[in-house]
Specification:
By secondary structure, the protein is an alpha/beta fold. The chain is built from nine helices and twelve strands. It folds into two domains: about 160 residues, P-loop containing nucleotide triphosphate hydrolases (Rossmann fold); about 70 residues, no CATH class. The radius of gyration is 19 Å and the shape is globular.
């Protein structure tokens, strides 16, 4: 579904991502984790085309991103950023309707089929009862679900999420990540997301990519990636790894920062 080969990205002529290669299979959830400033969000922006790449290739469904039109890209891929902003007087249903824009000509209005897809997206995200609510009136968790509904209405094959739990309390974090996993399982949606919480990455991911200073430290299943040695080296903290409940998705207990 997604193939990244030797990606290099720079900021003020300094490499922030270098020789980054990653392959994500269709229907997988892959989480990218790493310390602040390691290039996690930059990689997503490079994959989505929001930021230019100095070199390397990005392929989506066996098509080179550089050779795809913006309209075509938006038909197969959707990216939600850390903070998504909508007009204060926009309703949830109006927001979700914008997900149909990549499939319409500029002069075309939404038709019966579009409204069916909008209703389906609202239902899948549990937002049907909120469709007439103003976006400005929603809680953080409700707003995230509304944006996910908009993404679903776009009918993408690949969903990129840049820290989708930012600004949410613990309950809403679990609600949003649980919804992402549900959509992945029910629709076969491929998801690549940036996370900070190691336990969230372990619990909700098929694979985890650990990066540091713009390069990959390790990539694989959570049980392969999360070791006390790796977390010590990448994050500078001592941990205990608990595999008693789920050996494939270990629980990470942070003990203290290394001196």
């Amino acid at each position: 579904m997604l193939k990244i080969h030797s990606l290099r990205m720079e900021f003020r002529e300094r490499a922030v991502v270098q020789d980054f290669s990653l392959e994500v299979e269709e229907g997988e959830i892959v989480s990218i984790i790493g310390p602040n400033g390691s290039g996690k969000s930059t990689i997503l922006k490079g994959v989505s085309g929001m930021l230019p790449c100095v070199s390397g290739q990005v392929c989506i469904a066996d098509q080179h991103l550089a050779q795809m039109t913006a309209k075509h890209v938006s038909q197969v891929m959707c990216m939600l950023c850390q903070a998504n902003i909508s007009p204060a007087d926009m309703t949830v249903q109006e927001l979700v309707g914008y997900g149909r824009s990549p499939h319409k000509k500029w002069y075309e209005r939404l038709d019966h089929k579009d409204y069916e897809i909008i209703a389906w997206a609202l239902d899948k995200t549990g937002m049907t009862g909120y469709k007439d609510r103003l976006m400005a009136s929603l809680s953080g968790g409700e707003a995230q679900r509304a944006w996910l509904a908009m993404a679903l209405a776009q009918r993408p094959k690949l969903l990129l999420l840049d820290e989708p739990t930012t600004y949410l309390d613990i309950g809403h974090q679990l609600e949003v990540l649980g919804l992402v996993r549900q959509l992945n399982q029910e629709l076969g949606l491929t998801v690549v997301m940036v996370l900070h919480d190691l336990n969230h990455a372990s619990t909700y991911s098929d694979k985890v990519c650990v990066i540091q200073q713009g390069t990959i430290e390790r990539y694989g299943r959570p049980s392969e990636v999360f070791t006390e040695e790796l977390i010590r080296r990448v994050y500078g903290v001592e941990t205990e790894i608990d595999t008693r409940t789920d050996s494939e998705h270990p629980r990470i207990h942070v003990l203290h920062k290394m001196k």
